[in-house]
Amino acid sequence: MSKSIEERLRESFKYGGNSEFLETLYEEYLTDPDNIKPEWKNYFDSIQNGKNDISHKSITKQFRNYKVSKIPQVNSKSSKSSDVQNLINAYRRRGHEVAKIDPLNLRKAKEVPDLNLNFHDLNEADLKESFSISNFLGSKTMKLSEIISSISKSYTSSLGYEFMHIMSSKTRAWFIDKIEGKDTPYDFSNPEKEHILKRVVDSESLEKFLAAKYPGAKRFGLEGGESLVPLLDTVIEELGSKGAKELVMGMSHRGRLNVLINVMGKKPSELFTEFDEDFEQDDAHTGDVKYHLGYSSNILTSGGQVHVALGSNPSHLEVVNSVVLGSVRARQDRRQDSSMTKVVPILMHGDASFSAQGIVMEILQLSQTRAFGVGGTIHVVINNQIGFTTSVKEDARSTDYCTDVAKMIDAPIIHVNGDDPEACVMAAKLAVEYRHEFKKDIILDFVCYRRRGHNETDEPFATQPLMYKEITSKDSVTDLYFKKLLSKGIVEEDKYKEFKKNYRSHMEKGETVAESLATDPDESIHFDWTPYLEPDMTRSYPTAVSNESLKETMKNVLAFDKDFLMQKQVGKLYEERNHMLSGDLPLNWGFAEMAAYATLLKDGFPVRVTGQDSRRGTFSHRHLVVKDQNTGEGFVPLSKLNKGNKKFEIFDSLLSEEAVLGFEYGYASTWPEGLVIWEAQFGDFVNVAQVIIDQFIVSAETKWNRLSGLTLFLPHGYEGQGPEHSSCRLERFLQLCAHDNIQICIPTLPAQIFHLLRKQAINPSRKPLVVLTPKSLLRNPQATSKIEDLSNGTFRNIIINKSKNLPKRVVFCSGKVFFDLQDEINKLKVKNIELVRLEQLYPFPESELKSYTRDLKCKDFLWVQEEPKNMGAWFMIRHRLEEILNETKKGFRLNVVARNSSAAPAGGYQKYHFKRQKEIVTKALEL
Predict the structure, then answer these.
(1) Are 254 and 222 in contact (CB under 8 A)?
(2) Which of 170, 261, 772, 814 is at 20 to 30 A from 18, Cα to Cα?
């Protein structure tokens, strides 16, 4: 029976261009079946038919010899040169697989056929032959034995390189030029080697000092990875020498205290205070554990002072990555650093988290985009070859290396043995050169180990007995490097002991031990946060704009060249905006939003907006980037108001929430001068970024004293679009409110969003703003404003719609449901129910509601919401309403009308939606 198309497609891997790969894999199977992946082993087992096959190499060789005897060889030397070229390329491509990068020597020895002579039709006799290979050491004539010795030193020592997967031939050639033909890519003088020794001594000495002073305390030490300190020293020095003025670092807890003390210059006395917890805290400033805290300092380099900032980070490991990148982009924009060389990010990762956390993939995808590019990140993976207690190879990932995920963006990867400090410094130098040359990400896989358990109270032998048997018996990197230098007569033992003694002396006095800390910091490279740290809240910050100024500003941005051809609907939208400006049409949301941005730009406030569909707007209301229908060129009308770095930027982001929101948080928390907005495609999708919300947006001020004025646009409203297109989970945000940490607003009118956005930028109090933005209200003829509303008033926390008669009931609500209630009141001609919109839910408008309810006669109050009763605002504001009414209305009744409690936020069918919506409105108006 002939095979079906589906069967043939499933087996297509067996044929054509894959034959050579399959033959090589089959030879490995015949040599050692357990050395190949289980799925291939199972496949080859299935074709054996119960018999043991023999190697095909001898048959292949006979066949090749047969061809040689039948077909005269015109140029055997040329053929051999080609074979040598293939061998060289094999080392470039696969040398890292046998490189000595594991300080524990636990990496299973691997047979790589490509690195054998016979794989390339070469033999022992050829070792004495001389060859000149075109792309190897400038075509220098060398014996094959010399070629192999040289190429082996380059690719199989303490450094393993992966760059041959990169598509760019220029990049591959760059690495080849840097690496090949040298014993090591860089040579170090004896004083330099002595300095490297001192730095690993410093790293080890800190851990021993803390272990003795605070036995049993968690510190997530760097023991086993001490070479990280000279590695980071080198990165900072090399970047400084190339003109960098600011470096922003992110890392998780492993080794953080060592970096803070030995690299960044934090005083040990400050760390001791944190260990002793010898300070007062309060509920509004709770602080955080010491290995989460950030720090900044100025470091001296050969290129001048460099400001180095280490971001605070929670235990969510990789989540800080995008925050750091956003901070870097903000600093670059602030400096107008178009070359992206003055501000550089350095991210330190854990091996298990780098390969497993989705946000890592997201930040890699961000790296070369217009909105989020920072000119390349230097990634250092602190690879201690274990994930908490999880064995790496068996359970932590499905790839050979934890760094394999970086190949998706053609990033080069340098694997380096952490027990070889010189190799670590070499890798750091090479990484900086690459970043400077290509402005792209590079990965340093710093292969080390964890001398103790996950923390200092863990017992690692319970889960990794073989690994820790090896670790316990091995010398530290400090001892190994000292013995190496001692044997070469570079360092005497007295000098080694002096390093340790001096370090301990400084630690006992609590003095700074960092090598290159600037004692007279250049404050010109700092940003002045004073206006935002202590804002003057006694003065008012008006948001209204004079009619003359508004019209002048908007006329400018609404004007287009005559030859610019707009798409029909977009042209109509801009024509309507001109009529709105003249007062001939009421204002809609899109006009008011554009007017807010335009007037802020005119006043000198930069504006940045990102989101998956932000330029057009998910609901096609914004169109702040307009495409010429003839050329396809995009035009940003608001860019006419740009002045230097005070500019308008709006980008459609990649389909990410967590990394992009983290990026924008980092941006806003670094440059507070303007307005930074992240918009969810639908508010429901913000839950993918819950870690950023929980760990940074709502709590960073409490934990780390970090301010941010980030604004979130979350489209929210029940309109029959199903359970994933209705709710931004308002209840979650309200649950996270305390000590005026954030603002939560549900504006329902164009004038409200105009004043709210201007207030967010103009008022120097920097608090995150969560805006539940509308969908259908974007074009609802009832949800409009007048042009005069932008020139008068301010944002209103509550809006009262007075009843025609004395009210018998007051209905409190927020958002779209107000218009449904108002429609029904008008339809039924109800005259004694008063509607009160709460446009701001936090900080709760307590004073306004007290003033309003104090003079009321009625005692019947109702909260109405579209969300199910167990969601939405009800449970989080009920106590606030009750406290107000207890004070102003004795004997009141307060009830709720909402959808029935539910596990899902909304139904999936239109009929179901309309039925429930009708029930809510009807019940709310029944007296």
Answers:
(1) yes
(2) 170
Task: Report the number of distinct structural domains present in the chain.
Answer: 4
Find the helix packing angle between 846-854 and 874-888, rounded to 10°: 50
Question: What are the distances in angstroms from CA 912 to CA 95, 228, 421, 427?
Answer: 63, 60, 67, 62
- Amino acid present at 571: G
pTM of the entire structure? 0.89
Q: Which of 33, 34, 26, 35 is nearest to 55 (CA)?
A: 26
- Mean pLDDT computed over every residue of the chain: 91
* Farthest CA pair distance, the chain: 112
240 part of a folded domain = yes
Q: What is the CATH number of the domain that holds 406?
A: 3.40.50.970
pLDDT, tens digit, 9 for 90 and up, residues 92-117: 999 999 999 999 998 888 889 999 99
Q: With 50 as the cut, is the pLDDT of residue 74 above it?
A: no
Question: Any alpha helices (H) in 441-567, and if so which ranges?
Answer: 465-473, 477-487, 493-509, 530-533, 547-557
d(CA 234, CA 432): 9
Cβ neighbours of residue 137 under 8 Å, at least 6 residues apart? 150, 180, 181
585 and 559, same domain (yes or no): yes
Within 510-546, residue ranges assigned H as helices are 530-533
Beta strand pairing call for 304-310 and 343-350? unpaired
Query: Which stretches of 603-687 are DSSP H helices?
Result: 658-670
One domain for residues 162 and 214: no
Residue 5: per-residue pLDDT: 45
One domain for residues 195 and 144: no
Task: Report which residue type is found at 29.
Answer: Y
Coil, helix or strand for 848? helix
CB under 8 Å to 212, separation ≥6 — which residues?
none
pLDDT at residue 751 tops 80: yes
Q: Are residues 237 and 149 in the same domain?
A: no
Same domain, 652 and 607: yes
Question: Residue 259's domain spans which residues?
Answer: 190-277+285-520
Q: Is the separation of the CB atoms in 479 and 208 below 8 Å?
A: no
Distance CA 491, CA 485 (A): 6
Q: Which amino acid is at 164?
A: M
Computed on alpha carbons and rounded to an integer, the radius of gyration of the chain in Å comes to: 33
Whether residues 782 and 855 fall in one domain: no
The closest alpha carbon to 750, from 576, 570, 626, 601, belongs to 576
- Res 183: pLDDT: 79
**Listed residue (605, 770, 599) closest to 674, CA to CA:** 605
Banded model confidence at residue 67, pLDDT cuts 50, 70, 90: very low
